[in-house]
Design a protein that fits this description.
alpha/beta, Rossmann fold, 2 domains, six-stranded parallel sheet, about 35% helix, binds flavin mononucleotide
C-alpha cells in the first residue's frame, strides 16, 4: 500500500443515511488536521446534507451523482477518473448497505461507486445502518468480500439508533475515523514496519486499602503518543497501560494497576517482542501490607511502611534475548541528564529519554522537551513540542539510531 506524507488528499464519500449529517464534523476535523478533503455525495446522501455545507467546511468543490441539478452547478464537476487518481485515500462515512453492496460486487451506477472502482488508493469504510441491516448475512458477506480486497473498516458502534433500536449500527466516533485515516496514510519507518514492540505507559497504583492508593502525577499521555507514533510507523504495538486514559485504536492493550501487574503483563509478551519503549511511571515503593478492609481513622500519628516494588525495566533488561532493544524514560527533578545516564548504565538500556520535570513540567497535555541519551552521551534535545509531535520526533530519532549499522 502506498504511504503518503502530509498533507494527505482524502476523498470523503458520503452516502444516504441520517449519519450523513455527522460527515460534516468529519470533513471539518480532517481539514483541521491538515488533510485536503474533497467530498463526493451520493444522490441519497445529498438529501441529508448539502454540498454547500461540505464545500464551506473543506474549502474544496463537492462532487456528486447528479451534476445537472442546480445545487451542483456552483461547484465544478470533476470526472470520476480524475478523482480516483487524485485521492491518496478514500473514506466512505457513513457507508450505507447499498454502497457496500455495490462496491463488493464491482457495480458502478453513480459517481461514488465508479470512483471506488477506479481508485487504487486504500479504502476505509465507516458503515452506519439499522442493527438488523448490519447483522444481515448479505451485508456481512459484502463486508467480508471488501476486507478480502484489502479494504479497511471502522466498525459501527453500539448505541441508540435513529430508528429507535439499540445495538450495533451507529456510525463510529468521528475521532476514531479520523485517527484511522491518519494511520492508513502515515509513512512507515523501515526500523519499525512489521516489528513487534512493547510499550509501557501511565502511572501504577499501589493500594493501601480497598479505597486508598499510592500513585504519581503521570497521566500516560507521552507513552500513549509514543504507542500511537509507533503504530503509525508500521509497528505491531503491544501496550501495557496504567491509569485511566483511553488506549489508541489498533493496538493490543492490557490494562494494569500495580507495578507487579505491569511486570507480569510485560513478561508475558517480552519474549516475542523486537524491542520495548518503557514510558510508564512505575511506583518504586508500595505499602508493605495493604489492608483488606478500609482503614479507620485513629488518634495521633500513623505509620506507613513501604517496601520496594518489582523493577519492570531492570527485569526486562535481565531477561532480554540477543537482538532485543530497550529504550527507557527518566523523569528527573535535578541533574536530569547525569541521572538519566546513570539509570541507562545501571539497567543496561540501549537508550534513555531524560525528562526534566522541574517545576511540574512534563505531566499531562503540555509542551515538553526530552533529551535523548545514548551510552556514549547525550544527543541534541527534542522539543519543546506538543506530546503527539514529540512522540513522532522520538520515534524518528530512535528509528534512525536503530538503522545505523
Ligand atoms: C430516512 C432514511 C434513512 C436511511 N438511513 C439509512 C442508513 O442509516 N443506512 C443505510 O444503509 N441505508 C439507509 N437508508 C436507505 C438508503 O438511503 C438507500 O438504500 C439509498 O438507496 C442509499 O443510496 P446511496 O448508497 O447511493 O447513498 C435510509 C433511507 C431513508 C429514507
Amino acid at each position: 500500500m502506498p504511504r503518503h506524507t502530509e498533507p494527505m488528499k482524502v476523498l470523503l464519500g458520503i452516502t444516504g443515511g441520517i449519519a450523513a449529517t455527522r460527515a460534516a464534523d468529519l470533513a471539518r476535523l480532517l481539514t483541521r488536521q491538515g488533510h485536503v478533503v474533497r467530498c463526493v455525495l451520493t444522490e441519497a446522501g445529498a438529501r441529508f446534507i448539502t454540498p454547500l455545507t461540505l464545500a464551506s467546511l473543506t474549502g474544496q468543490p463537492v462532487a456528486g451523482a447528479n451534476p445537472d441539478r442546480p445545487e451542483w452547478r456552483a461547484t465544478p464537476v470533476v470526472e470520476h477518473i480524475e478523482l480516483a487518481r487524485w485521492a491518496d485515500l478514500l473514506c466512505v462515512a457513513p457507508a450505507t448497505a447499498d454502497i457496500l453492496g455495490k462496491a463488493a460486487h464491482g457495480l458502478a451506477p453513480d459517481l461514488l461507486s465508479t470512483v471506488l472502482l477506479a481508485a487504487r488508493a486504500p479504502v476505509l469504510w465507516a458503515p452506519a445502518m439499522n442493527t438488523a441491516m448490519w447483522e444481515h448475512p448479505a451485508v456481512q458477506a459484502n463486508v467480508a468480500r471488501l476486507r478480502g480486497f484489502g479494504h479497511h473498516f471502522v466498525e459501527p458502534a453500539e448505541g441508540l439508533l435513529a430508528c429507535g433500536e439499540e445495538g450495533p449500527g451507529k456510525l463510529a466516533d468521528i475521532e476514531d475515523i479520523a485517527e484511522t485515516v491518519a494511520w492508513l496514510g502515515s509513512p512507515r519507518h523501515p526500523s519499525f514496519s512489521g516489528k513487534r514492540i512493547l510499550v509501557t505507559a501511565g502511572p501504577t497504583r499501589e493500594d493501601l486499602d480497598p479505597v486508598r492508593t499510592l500513585t504519581n502525577r503521570s497521566t500516560g499521555t507521552m507513552g500513549l503518543e509514543v504507542a500511537r507514533a509507533l503504530r503509525d510507523a508500521g509497528a505491531e504495538v503491544h501496550l501495557v497501560l496504567g491509569g485511566d486514559l483511553r488506549a489508541p485504536l489498533g493496538l493490543s492493550t492490557r490494562r494494569v494497576r500495580s507495578a507487579a501487574e505491569m511486570l507480569e503483563a510485560c513478561l508475558a509478551r517480552w519474549e516475542d517482542m523486537d524491542g520495548c519503549i518503557a514510558a510508564a511511571a512505575v511506583a518504586d515503593q508500595r505499602p508493605e501490607s495493604p489492608a483488606v478492609q478500609k482503614v479507620k481513622k485513629q488518634e495521633g500519628p500513623e505509620d506507613l511502611r513501604l517496601v520496594r516494588t518489582a523493577d519492570v525495566l531492570g527485569t526486562l533488561s535481565e531477561r532480554r534475548r540477543p537482538g532485543q532493544w530497550l529504550l527507557g524514560f527518566a523523569a528527573e527533578s535535578e541533574d536530569h541528564i547525569a541521572n538519566a545516564r546513570a539509570k541507562l548504565l545501571r539497567k543496561g538500556l540501549d537508550g534513555i529519554l531524560a525528562n526534566d520535570i522541574t517545576g511540574g513540567h512534563g505531566f499531562g497535555p503540555t509542551l515538553n522537551t526530552l533529551t535523548p541519551v545514548l551510552p556514549g552521551g547525550p544527543q541534541p534535545p527534542l522539543g519543546p513540542l506538543p506530546k503527539a509531535e514529540l512522540a513522532r520526533a522520538v520515534v524518528q530519532w530512535w528509528g534512525g539510531v536503530l538503522a545505523q549499522p
